[in-house]
Amino acid sequence: MGRRLVNGVEAGAVAADDRGLQYGDGLFETMAARDGRIRAFALHMARLEGGCARLGIPMPAPALLEEECLQVLEDLGTGVVKLVVTRGTGPRGYRPPREPTVTRVVMASALRAAAAAGEGIVVRVCETRLARNARLAGIKHLNRLEQVLACAEWDDAEIAEGLMLATDDRVIGATAANIFLVRHGRLHTPEIRDCGVAGVMRQQVLNLAKTLELPVEVGDFGLPELRAADEIFLTNALTGIRPVIEVPGEGSWPHGEVTQRLRTRLEAAGEPG
Fold first, then answer.
1. Which domains occur in the chain, in start order?
2. DSSP label at 114?
3. What is the pLDDT of residue 268?
4. Which parts of the chain register pLDDT below 50?
5. Which of 47, 49, 131, 234 is 20–30 Å from 30 (CA)?
6. How far apart are CA 234 and CA 252, in angstroms?
7. Model-level pTM greater than 0.70?
8. If we measure between CA atoms, which residue out of 151, 154, 156, 196 comes closest to residue 178?
9. Which residues contact 181 (CB under 8 A, 6 or more apart)?
């Protein structure tokens, strides 16, 4: 683990009564950095700002956040920066304080290589489902117990990720990634309307699809549509695009042409492919 800042000061802990610790009352962004530059920083800040507005947490100045992110990267250069923003400390009880004292936590660590990402990954379908709540959908809030429980379902090094469905059987994404299907040359990705995270790499792929004039459909699909796909890939800000070659019990797929085309263009733009 690299350097850690709490409200701009070198520290390794937050106050015991911080609402982020007590209630998960906050947001976070996990960002890839290369050669001291944070990738897609503007997109991360846009999502963070939207999350702060949704939760009623004052948004810290992006310039200050960028300065602190670059500060923790000084001795690392290339790696991962995690930014946590909470409503800060407060009295016991769920009711948020009228004038919150926002807590900022910034930390850096080395980037772990995604095993065999270029060759394709195997993922499983998780039993743990995502609860539906439109008030929290899309933002990256601190409450991640559904993902924790889903990841506890397997202990197999061959399984790289777990797919998560909503309580009504819609495919939403993976524990830490969004999902795309390719069918007859068209991209399909779930609409993030009542659960799931609107990922930064997901947005980059949607933007890139427009540039490449790839048709895109954002909407609902379940496991039957997943089985009928020509290609499947996952997206994540740290690992980029990872082609899915197998979902045990559901099917297998090739590392397809559309997936490779998108990966190549992202890599050419300096983003993780």
1. 4-109 (3.30.470.10), 121-268 (3.20.10.10)
2. P
3. 84
4. 115-117
5. 131
6. 14
7. yes
8. 196
9. 187, 188, 189, 221, 225, 226, 229, 231, 232
